[in-house]
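May I ask for a sample protein chain and its fold as tokens?
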Amino acid sequence: MTLSVNQQLRFRAKSVEFRLPLAVERAATRLIPGLSTDPWLPAEKKLEVIFTHIPKSAGTSIVDALFGQKSRHIPVLRYAAFDEKRFADSFKFTFVRNPWSRIHSAYHYLNRVVGKGDKFVDWTWATHYLSDTPTFEDFILRLKDRRYRSAIKRYVHFRDQMDWISIPGRGNVMNFVGRFESLDADFEHVCEVLARQDLVLPQLRPGAGKDYREAYTSQMVDIVADLYRRDIDSLGYEF
């Protein structure tokens, strides 16, 4: 399945948003229909928070527990551009994940929908980019191709985690960065900050339960280390 020209342009436009200076993003939220919608969920406004859901980092369960609805992926930059005062007054938090584990999870999540049709954008994207990489090792080794790597990293599931939580020129703007690896304890901390100790975190999208490290060769470890060097250095992860 080949991506249409319109789909390719949409993916590239979405990628550009992460790199825009705040002033340009602010102008874009007033001019571009896709960016002009209020990024705050009603429950986020009520709690005076911003939760930046980085794909494949338990965000679906967190949004369900805190806000009682489906999640979506919006970079923190868009919040700052849309309402600077509310942004400054909000408690901003996110959850991150070991990059080697996260890419392993993202690949298998998308590989399951290869060839399923074009009902959802994930299905179309996965069929276009993952049909020739039927195994995780095939996929990682193909990332040595710079052109393929660039296309993969433009997609939301594979972007640097720092892209989601940073503003160009200001870096990471989160008040709290929780970790997938200490999910329960860090979610409990968020609940304490929000005075919502009554909440229980559901497990809506459980993984396979296998140790991601078993899927890697030393060469694959190095490829992912190069791919996500920014996240590894900024967030303090190692294989």
